Amino acid sequence: MQEIIEVVALFLGFSSWILILVSLQDQYWKESTTEGSVITTSTIYENLWMSCASDSTGIYNCRDFPSLFALPGYIQASRALMIAAIVFGTFGLVATLIGMQCSKIGGENYILKGRIAAIGGVFFLLQGICTMIAVSWYAANITQEFFDQFYPGTKYEIGEGLYIGWCSATLALCGGSCLVCACRFKSDNEKVPYHYQPTSRGHVLSTVAASQSAPSHYGRNAYV
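and the corresponding structure tokens:
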């Protein structure tokens, strides 16, 4: 049962790691809203790295953000958190592959492998937390500007990239929780390798013969 849980946790962690990359490549983290607009000639959409605009004919133009320090603080923080999530996810995948009981990597010390798998689960939890904070913080700023009646700039709606990020964070948290709960550090049922050394038959027979041939210091009447 524990091996099945570890395989499922590895699949969830790997899927969440892939979704992080998909979310970062997605250009629709936020999209300009048509609320209150009678005529819409162009659509503006952005992610953490660039801003794009497309018109009704389908022609679009994208440009990277010119300066890192000119960006709002939440965008810089979201960038750092997403990159940290990728790093944590990579460490989690490596640790889980080494610590799985069905894996031959790392020898047959199952107690040590269980601890390594638990560390991989912690890395997956950190990945999910970083991703969840990044996308939720970004979405909170979108909704705050959208419902602010005195906001003078362009108002945006939540894009598909944020939903992909939320899915990634949920999968990572589920995978990490499964690994941490499945790995038992100290248990009576741990599989510890034991090298059996059979005893020589001749040595046993000689020991028995010696015990039988040993002289007795008691008389026959002492056993009555």
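(Above: one complete record from the training split.) Helices lie at 2-25, 73-99, 110-146, 160-182, 201-213.
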